[in-house]
Amino acid sequence: MALVPLTHMLALLLLPAERFARSPCAAAFPRRALLRCSATEEPAAGALSRAQNLESLLSLAVQTERYEEAARLRDELASLGVDTELAVLQANNQFYRSFSDADLQAMDELWAPEGVVTCTHPGHAPLNGREDIMASWQSILGAGAGISIRATAVQCSVQGSLGFVTCVEQVDPGDGKTSAVNIFAQQPDGSWRMAVHHAGPVLM
């Protein structure tokens, strides 16, 4: 899969190292390994949270043998449909959940198994290729620091077999923010896997 358009787009997002070094954000983001994400990011639309709520209610109804209610919830869930945007948002949600839980296996399963993959942690050069990317996540998730990030202002769009998600990551505690771009590629089995993750400082 050719990712030439992504290269052009990311070139606009990459902050020159010298500008980053002079910015107030530099001290706030010395190492990505110090940051962990919470799974409380805000979806771009209510469809994701609505679907997740219905799934929880459906599971509870089945467990308590309230089958008529379960059937109603099942039909309501089906009526929402699992469109491509919702599927991409679910994949994005899984990324932050894996980050928050420091779950390396889940993180590994989320990244595209083949093709061009790129990951840029704040203040660091881009990593290309699965081996280097997963080595970085092993170091980050293994650190287990208590700082969390809450993703806000989540936006999603889908163009063909690529899903684009943008968000602002709020460091908690503190005032630090990072801007993130997550790009997912649809796989032959229909699932969405991460192909690009780029996070950098937000200059105020």
TrEMBL record:
UniProt-listed InterPro entries: NTF2-like_dom_sf (IPR032710), SnoaL-like (IPR037401), UVR_dom (IPR001943)
Residues covered by the SnoaL-like domain: 88-199
UniProt keyword terms in alphabetical order: Signal
Pfam families: SnoaL_3, UVR
Gene3D superfamilies linked: 3.10.450.50
Superkingdom of origin organism: Eukaryota
Signal peptide bounds: 1-21
Transmembrane segments: none
Domain UVR residues, every copy: 52-80
Name of the molecule in the record: SnoaL-like domain-containing protein
Species this protein is from: Phaeocystis antarctica
